[in-house]
Amino acid sequence: MDDDEGVWSPWPDLPPELSGMVFCRLPSYGDRLRFRAVCRQWRHAARQQHPLPPPPLPWLALDRTTYQSLPDGEVHRVPIPGELPTGTVCRGSFDGWLLYDSSEQLECFLMNPISKAKIDLPYHWYSDGDETIFRDYGEGEGQHTMSFRENAVRKIVVCSPDLVAAVIAGYGVFFHRPGMHSTWSFAAGSGFVCDIAFYGGKLYSVSKNGELFVHEFSIGEDHSSRVDTVIDLAPPLDKDNLRQGYYWLTTFYLVVSCTGKLLMVRWRWHFPKFYYYRRWFADELRKEIKLDVFEADLERRRWSQVKDIGDQALFLGTTCSKALPLPDHGNWIFFLGLNITKLCSDGIIHGVGDCAYCVYDMKNHTLRLDNPVSINREGLLSYGSEGSLFQRWRADWFFPCE
């Protein structure tokens, strides 16, 4: 009862078990925040949920400070903190972390914009000069400046409080041990790495050819590491149905499933060999793009194809891939529209427009492309109608967490 207006509100008296059920059914992080703000009783009910509710759906980075949440398309602004040095920029989102780079001060760190947790990262990497890949790039022994630009850092994984790993385009896997090392170190392995994932207490990487490697890192002050091949043979590709003049344009993602399995998703596009940037239409793309899921059989050292992933959905991205328990969206695979639009002459899918993300249904092998962005944004890195080059911020998933 409101003493001033004599209006009684029933919401605070809703039994905690019922309000808790409502809270667990909210897939949006923004809706969960608004739920907690209704009253003290609802805030308490949200905190008392056991088991914990599934993580909220991710946000999609539209530019350096703007995000679009799933499934409602709500736009969130995350400005660069005012206390950071002038010129600091956000270089991307990695799981629940944002990467901030101040090149003038040679400072870089990860920050959780919700909890404000922070991990300082070195601005240099160390080479002993023995790695062949560095000799090829003309890098000698000693310290070298790290590049945190979007076209350099493909992925950063916080494996544990004392281990951070990164994929640097053209080089491979680097690692850093906070509190032990003052620089990044190169983790020996293949030069071109598609993805990495921390699984079972170890870091795994997958090459552009679908090979799986496991990395081990020294615990002491030295920078040593080793890499072993786990699976040396990629799953075969369907080449019988390739049209003349076409090939499979592929990329690989590693995802740890909700049931504790290490999965590899092969994203493939039936693509012309002699390609020129042109317009792509939604109807033809639905026929040309396929996704395959495989489980790493570590004992038999092979990939086993998975036809059904059950009541979970996979979210694929260069900077982060993740599995979430979503019974209403089971067997769905979400991937970023940039996978396609970066190869479109005008940066859009005709019949759809500026596509934020796409959804592949494993049950019926269909592809949904009708997920437009919530705001107008600038063109992406591609060739325009007049051959000019224009650039847009890379699209990333951001998984809000407290």
TrEMBL record:
The keyword Repeat belongs to this UniProt entry's keyword annotation: no
Domain called F-box: residue spans: 14-55
Name assigned to this protein: F-box domain-containing protein
Domain of life of the organism encoding this protein: Eukaryota
Sequence intervals crossing the membrane: 156-175, 245-264
Keyword Transmembrane helix: yes
InterPro entries on file: F-box-like_dom_sf (IPR036047), F-box_dom (IPR001810), KIB1-4_b-propeller (IPR005174)
Provenance organism: Oryza punctata (Red rice)
Keywords attached to this entry: Membrane, Transmembrane, Transmembrane helix
